[in-house]
User: Fold Endoribonuclease YbeY from Dyadobacter endophyticus.
Amino acid sequence: MVSFFSEDIDFKVVNPIKTKKWIKNASFSEGYEVSQLNYIFCSDEYLLEINKQYLDHDYFTDIITFDNSEEDKELEGDIYISVDRVRDNAETFHTDFDSEMRRVLIHGLLHLVGYEDSSEALKTAMRAKEDEYLRLF
Assistant:
């Protein structure tokens, strides 16, 4: 099950049913079944506090992913997304907000299935995979 929540802001996903199906299909394509994925939309300040508390990082980010999976090939996790950061990134990268939000949604899923972005080569591979799934939306 894929669920969407808002924490300290009022935010609704555009086309939630289509988006949930797209996320589940991407997961399936990567060889995983979605057990429970919670996407929590929040402000920069809210996500900054999570970043400080759990990761000991004192900077803004667009997404933090917590993997709660207990079974192989079964996804369970909490994905926090700063709507403020996504909006700023959409401007920075000259794209529309909804496209950037979909990129971040799939980015969190890709982290849960094992993709990393800790080096330039890994970032490039992850970006290519994001692009692949964005085309399928």
Summary: The longest strand covers residues 33-42. The radius of gyration is 14 Å. The chain has five helices and four strands. The CA atoms of residues 32 and 72 lie 8 Å apart.
